[in-house]
Amino acid sequence: MSFLKSALDFVSGGNSNENFVGSTVELGQQKLNVNRAIAEGGFAIVYEASDENGTKYALKRLLAHEDSKKKEIIREIQFLRRLSGHPNIINYISAATISKEESGQMCDEYLLCTEFCEGGQLVDVMKRLGGPMALDQIIKAFYQTCSAVSHLHKQQLPVIHRDLKVENLLLTAGGIVKLCDFGSATTTAHYPDNTWAAGKRGQ
């Protein structure tokens, strides 16, 4: 896990959700100002952050209350770090961690910094249209998504995303599709039979 920088002092001014916006985050040599929350899930919040030059980044804050969640987060970061560089996969910038022993909190925390996609989620674009997308837009988005998935499947150990949906497709300012959220990704192939249960999906 040498790619994970220490983040013992990653927040100035406290680390609660309320204090996180407006704080300064240090990831290695990079200092980011946390501007606003832009998305929230069960164990993660995504923020818009910017550096001293005004360049925007997406900063994902993940919480791990148990070892299984910790392993899942580390796996997500490792997958993104390995797959980054493809034009249709969100670009990895850096990551940091602070343990619950260091912070005095009830859980381990992780920060994942990626490129910021000005266009937002594809699902939000679809909602704003108020109707179906144009055929050429559908084909473009589908082609770029397939290109990202093909890159995953061409790895020496093929990566299965397992959470493909419009909520996990982001758009750059130029309309380029970027696949994100590798929290469910795996290199393990499953062959369901009559004993298969949803709980086995996380194995």
Verbal overview:
This protein has a seven-stranded mixed beta sheet. It has a three-stranded antiparallel beta sheet with strand order 8-9-10. It is of the alpha+beta class and 203 residues long. A hairpin with a 5-residue loop joins strand 9 (169-171) and strand 10. The chain starts with a strand and ends in a 24-residue tail after the last strand. The chain is globular, with a radius of gyration of 18 Å. The chain has helices spanning 17-20, 67-83, 100-103, 122-129, 135-153, and strands at residues 5-6, 24-27, 30-40, 44-50, 56-64, 92-98, 108-115, 120-121, 169-171, 177-179. The model has no long low-confidence stretch (mean pLDDT 87). It has two domains: 5-115, Phosphorylase Kinase, domain 1 (2-Layer Sandwich); 120-193, Transferase(Phosphotransferase) domain 1 (Transferase(Phosphotransferase), domain 1), CATH 1.10.510.10.
Main features:
2 domains, Phosphorylase Kinase, domain 1, alpha+beta, 5 helices, about 200 residues, 10 strands, Transferase(Phosphotransferase), domain 1, 3-stranded antiparallel beta sheet, 7-stranded mixed beta sheet
Question: SSE layout and pairings?
Answer:
Layout: E1 5-6, H1 17-20, E2 24-27, E3 30-40, E4 44-50, E5 56-64, H2 67-83, E6 92-98, H3 100-103, E7 108-115, E8 120-121, H4 122-129, H5 135-153, E9 169-171, E10 177-179
Parallel strand pairs: 1-6
Antiparallel strand pairs: 2-3, 3-4, 4-5, 5-7, 6-7, 8-9, 9-10
Pfam family, one: Pkinase
Organism: Ciona intestinalis
Protein name: Protein kinase domain-containing protein
